[in-house]
Design a protein that fits this description.
By secondary structure, this protein is mainly β. The chain has one domain. Helix content is 11%, strand content 54%. It has three helices and 17 strands. The strands form two sheets. It has a 15-stranded mixed sheet with strand order 8-7-6-5-4-3-2-1-17-16-15-14-13-12-9, covered by helices on one side.
């Protein structure tokens, strides 16, 4: 079974990255672009690196731009690419995906999200509407930076510092999400578990653990609250898959 099949399922002032992405007042945004995060994730299945995801998160004129590229280990193909754009209030502007053959685009259309799919360069474009608001999150297959952005959204809306502690609301945060490659929507939940010691590239790190859950999956995510809540590790135990920031 290929990696793509295995993984197919699955206070504002202190939240540096999340503050910039989800602050509500666009008037205070700088005119120039601002880099929020950039780097790469290594995707390991049973200890073997199978995919590298290279990503960047920027803000330009109040629009957050999340770009990502997946490249399979040992492959000469260009791999998958995605480009997510949304406003500072988390409204989708546009989402694009391609793999060098097929492509898709998702945009808001009144009370719907409209997905346009082109299976090949010569194929006719098909359309599929989803009765979902423009604030629905994009969680496409295999793009872990999308999970980082969702974690920031949860931390911004549901959590705050209380003295030396970082606390979130008792009930998990619930989000409607679209999985464009699967042409499906679902509801997912995020909750803060607490602080844990995690080994990252041989070094013990003190990180915050979040659980990301859906009807048929449960993932563990670790973020670094000392470095703008960046996503550092993901564990998908059922698929023997681990994702680690390089």
């Amino acid at each position: 079974m290929t990696l793509m099949a295995r993984m197919r399922w699955g206070t504002l002032a202190v939240l540096g990255c999340a503050t910039i992405l989800y602050a509500g007042d666009k008037k205070d945004k700088p005119a120039g672009g601002k880099q929020i995060d950039a780097g790469s994730f290594g995707v390991f299945v049973k200890g073997q690196r199978v995919v590298t995801e290279t990503f960047s998160v920027k803000q330009e004129n109040g629009i957050s731009i999340v770009k990502s590229q997946l490249k399979e280990t040992g492959s000469s193909s260009s791999g998958q690419k995605s480009d997510l754009e949304m406003t500072s209030s988390a409204d989708l502007v546009k989402y694009e995906w391609s793999d060098g053959n097929g492509s898709l685009v998702v945009t808001p259309n009144n009370d719907f999200l409209l997905e346009k799919i082109t299976a090949s360069p010569t194929a006719k474009t098909a359309e599929q509407p989803f009765l979902m608001p423009s604030t629905s999150a994009i969680l496409d297959n295999n793009f872990f930076v999308h999970r980082e952005v969702l974690a920031w959204r949860y931390l911004t809306t549901s959590c705050q510092n209380q003295g030396a502690d970082f606390r979130c609301q008792k009930e998990p945060g619930e989000f409607g999400v679209l999985v464009p490659q699967d042409r499906t929507s679902m509801r997912v939940r995020l909750e803060l578990v607490g602080r844990e010691k995690v080994k990252i590239r041989g070094t013990d790190r003190d990180l915050l653990r979040l659980n990301l859950m859906g009807e048929s999956f449960s993932w563990a995510l670790w973020v670094d609250d000392k470095d703008q809540f960046k996503l550092m590790r993901v564990l998908i135990a059922d698929d023997h898959t681990e994702v680690v920031r390089d």
